[in-house]
Design brief:
The protein is of the alpha/beta class. It has helices at about 15-25, 45-50, 65-75, 95-105, 115-120, 125-140, 155-160, 170-180, 205-225, 225-255, 260-309, and strands at about 1-10, 30-35, 55, 75-80, 105-110, 155, 185-190.
Length: about 300
């Protein structure tokens, strides 16, 4: 088992992958560097292998699918994930790994947004999107994370082997963050330098489609991890609408003794019942989620025992 494994998911990064591998070999000479090629057509895999990386291939397209294979295949005490586009210098690699190996941290996030991200990143709306995602997650999950979507992270073995990856694409970082918050893992952030891609290197992100997928992931995980809050919000909306429909009819009944708008009363009653049913669903699912957290803790104990053996 490696003490430190550097994980580099790659798709068409021929211009930068050699530098990324060499920089991290210099920063972490004892580490094994794994480059997982995701159907590149520009010779990325060959360049990485010549630079000294262990190259493997993932045929299922998408960063989430690559990370899933990496986490399943590789055994290490500390995992350092880094993008292959050379936007994250290797200067902080040792610091991130030391927090995992020596301080008991489960996930260390390289915080771009507190350093050079907003001056280096040239893509329109990316800064706004990062702020929006940060605001939503911190409000919905009652946290204080500065950089939700950073691609430079270090993980403990407990986190890696117990993380059920569901996302297939770039929303994987958001899923990692929410999972760590929900399961009470120890999280630390380290401000890191960020630099824009070199000329000729193209980003694989689509601002709007990938941004929508991230927002959809946040909504899905909010429903799964905090069902009582999720369904309570919907229930309150339905109850407010039901009352808004019912109160004018009820006032008219008090003054005239007549109910001339029965369809409105029926719609109001149906929406009130739907709100009650959804709230009950939230209560039931909340019990299920709490039981799942208990089972997850038992699974982590088994992972630790397996590491000791």
């Amino acid at each position: 088992m490696d003490k430190i494994a550097v994980l580099v998911p790659c798709y068409n990064e021929s211009q930068t992958i050699e530098k990324v591998v060499r920089d991290h070999k210099s920063a972490l000479p004892e580490a094994s560097i794994y480059v997982y090629d995701n159907n590149s057509t520009d010779g990325t895999a060959e360049i990485a292998e010549k630079a000294g990386a262990i190259v493997r291939h993932e045929p299922r397209q998408g960063k989430g699918n690559v990370i899933r294979s990496m986490f399943r295949d590789i055994e290490a005490d500390c995992y350092l994930m880094i993008d292959g586009d050379d936007t994250y210098p290797a200067d902080n690699a040792r610091q991130l790994c030391d927090l995992v190996l020596n301080k008991g941290v489960d996930m260390v996030v390289g915080d771009r947004l507190s350093s050079t991200y907003f001056t280096e990143n040239k893509r329109m709306f990316h800064g706004m999107g990062n702020r929006l995602v940060r605001f939503l997650i911190n409000k919905l999950f009652k946290s204080d994370i500065h950089d939700i979507m950073s691609g430079q992270r270090a993980f403990s073995r407990d986190f890696v082997k117990g993380f059920p990856i569901l996302s297939g694409g770039f929303e994987i970082e958001t899923e990692m963050t929410i999972h760590a918050l929900d399961k009470n893992f120890v999280i630390r952030e380290v401000p890191v330098l960020y630099r824009d891609r070199p000329d000729g290197s193209e980003s694989k992100l689509n601002t709007f489609s990938d941004g929508f997928r991230v927002l959809r992931t946040i909504a899905r995980l909010f429903e799964q991890y905090r069902p009582l809050a999720f369904f309570s919000i919907i229930s309150i909306v339905l109850w407010v609408v039901a009352l808004a429909l019912f109160i004018p009819v009820f006032n008219e009944y008090l003054h005239t003794g007549l109910v001339p708008r029965f369809p409105t009363v029926i719609v109001s009653g149906v929406m009130g019942i739907m709100g009650m049913l959804l709230w009950i669903c939230g209560v039931i699912l909340d019990v299920v989620v709490k039981k799942h957290r208990q089972l997850y803790e038992l699974m982590l104990n088994q992972i630790r025992q397996g590491k000791g053996n």
